[in-house]
C-alpha cells in the first residue's frame, strides 16, 4: 500500500515541527507507510520508494532554502525522468505573515512539476479564516490549533490521494470540503 | 472511461489551434472521451463532467486572459469545493519567446490548485532544446513540428494520467521519458 | 511632485478598505498627489498620469480578479510600450491566511513587470510576525492594527520611492528597516 | 556615477556567457562602473557597492541553482534590511524552450523583492517573436543574434534605470520601446 515521504529542511526547528505533524496526518490513513527525512538524511532511494511526497522548506527570502535545493539539484542525474507521476504537496514556515511562505511553497511546486510530479493544493479551511490552498503555511513555530491542523490535513490529504489514485482504494476519497 | 476537457480562450486563433492539437493528443489513448470548449461556450457542467482538464489561455501581460479568468471566477459558487482531485495541465501562446507563456501557465496552475486539482508538468523533450516542463508553450501560431508535438504530448499525457489514476488502467503508464 | 495612483477592484469592500489605507499612507509624504480609482472608474489616462502605482485585487482563486485583469488587458493597445519605468507595488485581501493573497500579488507583479514597471516588496515588519514582503496582504477585512499598518506602510513606501527616484528628493529615503 | 553588479552562477558556462553580454550592455551607458562576479567570488560588499544588479542563474528544475541561493541565504544576516531600494533584473539559461527559464527568473525576482529591491522586466522585442519581458532567457548557449541582443539589452536597460533614477541623469531615459 501507499508509501509517503515527508522531506524537510529546518534550521530553527519550526519546519521540522511542521514535518512531524504532516507525518502524523499521513498516518491517519490506514495502510500508509510513512518516512520522515531531512534533506541531509534523504537520498534518491527515498524518492524512488515513495508514491506521494510532502516537501517542506523554511522561507528564506521567499524561495526554497539552498540546502533543500541542493538535495534536488544533486539527485537530478539519478532520478530525473524516472520518477514522474508521483503525487506531491508542500509546506513552509516563514518569519511572519506576508513573509513569503506561499511563495516558498510555489518554488517547491515549480521544482516538483519539473520532475513530472502531480502537485496539489487543498481547498479546505482548517480554522477561522485559515486555509492551505497552496500548501500548509505558518509564521514561525506551528503552535495555534489551526496551524497544527493545517499540517495534519496536508499529510492526510496526501495519503488519501495516494490511497485513491495509486492503490485504487476509492473508499479513501476525501469527503466534502470543509468550507467553515 | 476517462473524460478529458480541453478548455481554451483565444482571440487571434493561436491558442485555439493549440487546443485542437491537445485534443488530438488526448484521443491517442483509446477509450478517452474528449470535449473541446472555449471559455465562452463552457459551463460548470463541463468541469463536473471531466476527470482531466487541459486549460489554455493566450499570454496577455503574462497572466491568464480576463475572459478565461471570468469563467473560473464565475463558477466558484457552483463548483468550488466539489471538484477537487481532478487532474489538470495548461498551455499558452505568447507574442514571443521570453514573453511570459510560462508565467501564464503558472497563473493557470495557481487557479487550478486553488480548486484542489492535481496539476502536472511534463519532463519530456519533444524536439531539439524544446520541452514543456510547465505546460505547452509556443510563440504565436503553433507551426513548427516541435510546437505541434508539445501540444499533442500534453493532451496525451493528460489522458494517460487519467487512464492510469482515475480508471486504474495501468497499461497506459507513460514509458520512459524522452530526453533527446 | 510625485503622482501616486491607488487602483483597486473590490466586491466585498475589503480590498477597497485596503486601498483607502494605502492612499492614506501615500499622503504621509508631503507633496504627493494621490488618486484613488476602482478598476471600473480608471482609464489609461490615470496610468499615464501617475509616477507610482499601487494595485490591489481581491484574491479570487489565487490570481488577480477578472475585472482588474480586464482593465489591464484592454488598455494594452493604448499604453503598452509607453509607460515603462514607473514604480509599482501591490495588495490583496483573501478569504483566509494561506488562501493565496501572496499569489494574487504575484500575478499583479507579473502583469506590472510586463509593462516595464519597477515593482518592489517591503522588508519591514509592521507587527509581531507580520510583514509585507510581497505586498500588503490581509485575510478578509483589514481590522487589526498590523493589517492597517501594512497597507499604510505600502502606500508610504511607494510615495517615498517616487519622491526619491522620480523627484530626486533624497531627503525622503526610507530610514532603517523595521525588523521587530 | 552608477555602479552595476552582474552576478551569476554557471556550471556549463552558458549563464556565464550571458553574464558577459549583460555586462557589455551595461557599459553602453557612459559613466557606468561594471563588476562581473560569480556567486562563488561575490561577497556582501559587492551588494553594498552596487546601485543596480543583474542576477543570473542556470535553470535547474525551474528554480535558482542552489549555489546562487546559498550566496543570498548566507548574506542575509549582514545585508538584509540595509540594501533595499536598489534596482535589479535577472537572466537564465535553460536546457530547452519551455524548460523553466522564465520560472527561474521568477524565483530570482521573488528573492530580490524580499530584500526590497525594485525589479523590472523589459517590454522591448529584440528579434522576430523574441523578447525579455521577465528577464533575458535563452536555451543552452546564447548564440543567435537575438539571444545575445536580449542579454545586452538587459544590461543596458539596467544601467539606464540606474543613470536616470539613482544618478538623476534624465538624458539616459530609454527611448520608445522596440515593438518589432
Overview of the structural elements:
The structure is a homotetramer of 180-residue chains. Chain A is α/β, with parallel strands linked by helices and 180 residues long. Chain A has a single domain (3-172), classed as Rossmann fold (3-Layer(aba) Sandwich). Helix content of chain A is 39%, strand content 24%. Chain A has 5 helices and 8 strands. The first copy, chain A, has helices at 14-27, 44-49, 66-79, 101-114, 145-166; strands at 3-8, 33-38, 52-58, 87-94, 118-120, 122-127, 130-132, 136-139. In chain A, strands 1, 2, 3, 4, 5 and 8 form a 6-stranded parallel sheet that branches. In chain A, helix 3 links the parallel strand 3 (52-58) and strand 4. In chain A, helix 1 (14-27) crosses helix 5 (145-166). Chain A is globular and about 40 Å long. Chains in contact: A-B, A-C, A-D, B-C, B-D, C-D. Strand 5 of chain A pairs antiparallel with strand 5 of chain B, so a sheet runs across the interface.
What kind of oligomer do you see?
Answer: homotetramer
- Average of per-residue pLDDT values of chain A: 97
CATH class of chain A: Alpha Beta
Structurally, the number of domains of chain A stands at: 1
Broad structural category of chain A? alpha/beta
Q: H/E order of the elements of chain A?
A: EHEHEHEHEEEEH
What's the gyration radius of chain A in Å? Answer: 15 Å
- Span between N and C termini of chain A? 32 Å
Q: Major sheet of chain A: size, sense and barrel closure?
A: 6 strands, parallel
Number of helices of chain A: 5
Gross CATH architecture of chain A: 3-Layer(aba) Sandwich
The fourth-level CATH homologous superfamily of chain A is: Flavodoxin domain
Overall shape of chain A: globular
CATH topology of chain A, what is it called? Rossmann fold
Amino acid at each position: 500500500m501507499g508509501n509517503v515521504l515527508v522531506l524537510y529542511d529546518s534550521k530553527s526547528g519550526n519546519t521540522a515541527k511542521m514535518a512531524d505533524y504532516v507525518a502524523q496526518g499521513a498516518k491517519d490513513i490506514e495502510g500508509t507507510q510513512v518516512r520522515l527525512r531531512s534533506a541531509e538524511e534523504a537520498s534518491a532511494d527515498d524518492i524512488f520508494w515513495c508514491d506521494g511526497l510532502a516537501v517542506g522548506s523554511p522561507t528564506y527570502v521567499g524561495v526554497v532554502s539552498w540546502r533543500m535545493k541542493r538535495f534536488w539539484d544533486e539527485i537530478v542525474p539519478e532520478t530525473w525522468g524516472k520518477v514522474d507521476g508521483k503525487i506531491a504537496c508542500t509546506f513552509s514556515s516563514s518569519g511572519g505573515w506576508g513573509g513569503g511562505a506561499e511563495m516558498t511553497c510555489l518554488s517547491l511546486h515549480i521544482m516538483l512539476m519539473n520532475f513530472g510530479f502531480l502537485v496539489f493544493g487543498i481547498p479546505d479551511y482548517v480554522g477561522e479564516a485559515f486555509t492551505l490552498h497552496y500548501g500548509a503555511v505558518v509564521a514561525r513555530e506551528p503552535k495555534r490549533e489551526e496551524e497544527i491542523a493545517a499540517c495534519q490535513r496536508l499529510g492526510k490529504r496526501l495519503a488519501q490521494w495516494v490511497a485513491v489514485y495509486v492503490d485504487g482504494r476509492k473508499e479513501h476519497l476525501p469527503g466534502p470540503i470543509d468550507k467553515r
